[in-house]
Amino acid sequence: MRFVWPEFLWLLAIAPVAVWFYLWLLRRRRISALRFPSLGLVHAANPGKAWRRHVAPAVFLLALLTGILASARPSAVITLPSQQRTIILAIDVSLSMRATDVQPSRIAAAQEAAKAFVKELPNDVRIGVVSFAGTASIVQTPTNNTEDLVAAIDRLQLDRQTAIGSGVVVSLAALFPEDHELNLESMVLGKRSGRSAEREMAAKKAEPKQEKKVGPVDPGSNTSKAIILLTDGRRTTGPLPSDTARMAAERGIKVYTVGFGTAQGASVGIEGYSIYMAFDEETLKTIADITRAEYFHASTAEGLKKVYQDLSSRLVLQREYTEIAMLFAALAAALMLVAAAFSLAWAPRSA
Asked: In terms of Cα–Cα distance, which of 318, 297, 245 is closest to 102?
């Protein structure tokens, strides 16, 4: 437990002072009772109920201490529904995914795990699917329609090369369709095509009073969107993954990376040639670090399913420090009422 205003905890020193004062009052009453023996006889007639008069003060003291804790604004780690409600699955579809070191093949295992992930998430979570090889494309825009998502995952087709950075850029474009800076063509070619330029100019004319773009935010601060990037290879083309990771970080997006396949890699037959494939673990860790996310390694189909299950719990339910001062304040008020009730019910009354 943490406290926003820990300096208020010094008020807890009131407790021993209050106990000392209460004992002093009891001692003073006992001396007074000796001066009037008849009152002492009255109390002696009900020795079993003498403890009742201490209950109300004890509960009152507990309420006071609870109120002091509330004033210090405590916060605790609580598991709450996450606000991350749009997730992009960026899946590597390079030819190396046909390797069979993961049965029946890497791509088949990845598809099955992705479909299981989609089916387990609640309906209010929107998911998009992006595939990347030599370039990247949006296979399915974010939706909560499970059937559409499963069909999109089944449509994945393998192609040459691996452009991890392109997968990140297109995933960001799926999350921010109005962000004209997320233009993969301009990043690769160094310029915008005629159609891209025309679309951007038309958008600017249609929104002449559009507010200026907000500057970069803290990495990982966007709690409503996230990217899960799965690859089994290393970059062979496209923008640098580290550069695109910084683009995600500037928008507060976490990019969770998953390295799929055996650590030693595998040989894949492509057009009559046997080519050795292995994923670049350091690059994937760098992407996750830059975006304040995490890196996972899955070497089997079952391992990949477990990674997705772990990510599902992290994205839908998250543990974070939440202020619970109101809970302590409500408890203090309830204890005050209980103390008052005990005082009215059991306090001795004069005739």
From this structure: 297
Phi, psi of 348 (to 5 degrees): -65, 140
Q: Is residue 317 part of a domain?
A: no
**Residues 218, 126 share a domain:** yes
Is the pLDDT at 94 greater than 80? The verdict is yes
Angle formed by the axes of helices 164-175 and 241-250, nearest 10°: 20
Range of the domain at 182: 82-188+214-299
Distance of CA 259 to the CA centre of its chain: 21
Contacts 24+ apart (CB under 8 A), 120-125: 120/309, 120/312, 121/87, 121/312, 121/316, 122/316, 124/85, 125/84, 125/85, 125/86, 125/87, 125/315, 125/316
Q: What are the structure tokens assigned to 241, written together?
A: 């993954």
**25 versus 235: which is more confidently predicted?**
235
- Please give the single-letter amino acid code of residue 27: R
pTM for this entry: 0.64
